[in-house]
Write a structure and sequence with these properties.
The chain is of the alpha/beta class. Strands 1, 2, 3, 4, 5, 6 and 7 form a seven-stranded parallel beta sheet that branches. Helix 1 crosses helix 12, helix 7 runs parallel beside helix 8 and helix 10 packs across helix 12. The chain is globular and about 50 Å long. The protein starts with 7 loop residues before the first helix and ends with a helix.
Length: about 325
Amino acid sequence: MNETIVSERARKLYADALVWDTHSGFMPDPIADLNNLRIWCDAGVNYLSIDVGFDLMPWQDTVKTLAAFRHWINAHPDHYTLVTSADEALQAKAEGKLGITFDIEGMNALDGRIEMVEFYHQLGVRQILFAYNRNNLVGGGCHDDDQGLTAFGRQVIDEMNRLGMFVDVTHCGHRTSMEVMEYSNRPVIFSHSNPKALCGHGRNISDDQIRACAKTGGVVGIVGINFFLGDEDASSETLANHVDYLLDVAGPEHVGIGLDYAFPVEVAGIDEILAANPQFWPKSEGYGAGPSVYARPAQLLEMTEILLRRGHKDDTVRGVLGGNFLRLAREVWK
């Protein structure tokens, strides 16, 4: 926590709210130390979507990671529980546990096979991101020559809509994201994206993308990494600035949290991966210019105080903390 004094009003609101973080940032690796999930628990987070793969990885490694993470979580039922519905996420909070589902960043994990969507859904994946920075079989990435939504991509959206999964366009190119949002008959999310108007990074999103997401009924989750915040310290004030902007552009029902937080012990290793794969993380976008800095889950309470101090209503702040993603899960998940 920084120097902000947290009021009793903020503490009570935060304790009562369902705090929902829609994307983790630690490496999807079977050997990841999941004891670090205590970081979210200690911060009062009630639900977390854990990343189990991204497009740089072979699809087989995504399956191995998913198997390992499921096994570990099921072996620690006192503090963690796999959930499949919004009501189960609420039940996890009532029991003092961290409710967990999984997400995948990019469709390379499908290996070009539409039936893999249902396979992942059965194993607890509730959101899949279309393209991770680079083009793939379904669409275009934000750091590539954006090819737009493909015919296979439309099949994938149909299947995700049928099964009840969040269609996620974070890390996608502008054209692809807009075409996905136009095609899907269910709400589309940006699980962890920040407004380009506040930080001009190529991974951030424009006002027309934000408005299009809200038009689908979707939610934009703010990401807490310095590159995308335009703040080398990833401060709570800057997090609140991005929330403020999204509330103004998208409206109070369409803003949430996707911190993309990585354990401190992992950050050096993640920075090495970024440096070794400039095709995914181009130096021209500032990757590698300095260390990655992550806003911690514990900063969410401080962010709550800042938003209240700026005059936001309690219901608006509750929605940002998790109420909006909870509502969407009720609408979309099956």
